[in-house]
């Protein structure tokens, strides 16, 4: 587009809009069902159902939260792994009940952002990660508190869903 002086306008967007589709979704949820996790999950299942996409649901056993005695107890760790697996399976069942046809529950252990970015994403290969983010400070690591790290370091696109919609 030429301006009044006949020169080419450098702000002209010279491309055609193309449809963008995702093919595999991954949603990260906290085992304690934080508000942001539930909202991210709701967004993920809505999107997966609407576009008939496979959905993986991941939660992380945060081993840094365990005291030294518990972390050294194989029985305790096995029990915690079972609890985390049961929680992610409940999310998976909710997704199926909502109408998502292909759902994969996943668990990991360690620091949530690091494990999701360095282990879960390379293994499951989503092209979109959906994660919640709390706006308040927390005393321990929640997946939502790791949203910034994941957005900056994930090998796929990331959508961050806030715990609330209020604008200030």
Please give a structural write-up.
The protein has 168 residues and is an alpha/beta fold. The protein has one domain: Rossmann fold (3-Layer(aba) Sandwich), CATH 3.40.50.620. The chain is 39% helix and 18% strand. The chain has five helices and five strands, in the order βαβααβαβαβ. A five-stranded parallel sheet has the order 3-2-1-4-5, sandwiched between helices. Helix 4 packs across helix 5. The protein is globular, with a radius of gyration of 20 Å. The two termini are 38 Å apart. 33% of the residues are buried. The mean pLDDT is 85.
Fold blueprint:
Layout: E1 25-28, H1 35-51, E2 55-61, H2 68-71, H3 74-98, E3 103-109, H4 112-124, E4 128-133, H5 147-153, E5 157-162
Helix pairs in contact: 4-5
Number of helices: 5
CATH class: Alpha Beta
**What is the spatial order of strands in the main beta sheet?**
3-2-1-4-5
Helix proportion: 25-40%
Over all CA atoms, what is the radius of gyration? 20 Å
Domain UspA: 22-162
InterPro entries: Rossmann-like_a/b/a_fold, Universal_stress_UspA, UspA
Family: Belongs to the universal stress protein A family.
Protein name: Universal stress protein UspA family protein
């Amino acid at each position: 587009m030429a301006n009044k002086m006949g020169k080419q306008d450098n702000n002209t967007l010279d491309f055609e809009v193309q449809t963008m589709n995702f093919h595999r979704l991954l949603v990260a949820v906290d085992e304690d069902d934080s508000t942001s996790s539930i909202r991210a999950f709701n967004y993920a299942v809505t999107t997966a159902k609407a576009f008939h996409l496979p959905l993986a649901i991941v939660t992380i056993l945060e081993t840094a939260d365990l005291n030294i005695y518990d972390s050294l107890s194989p029985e305790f760790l096995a029990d915690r792994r079972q609890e985390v697996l049961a929680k992610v399976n409940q999310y998976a069942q909710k997704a199926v009940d909502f109408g998502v046809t292909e759902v994969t529950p996943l668990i990991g252990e360690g620091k949530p952002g690091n494990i999701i970015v360095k282990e879960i994403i390379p293994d499951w290969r989503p092209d979109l990660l959906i994660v919640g983010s709390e706006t308040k400070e927390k005393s321990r690591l929640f997946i939502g508190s790791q949203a910034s790290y994941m957005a900056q370091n994930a090998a796929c696109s990331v959508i961050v869903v806030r715990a609330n919609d209020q604008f200030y």
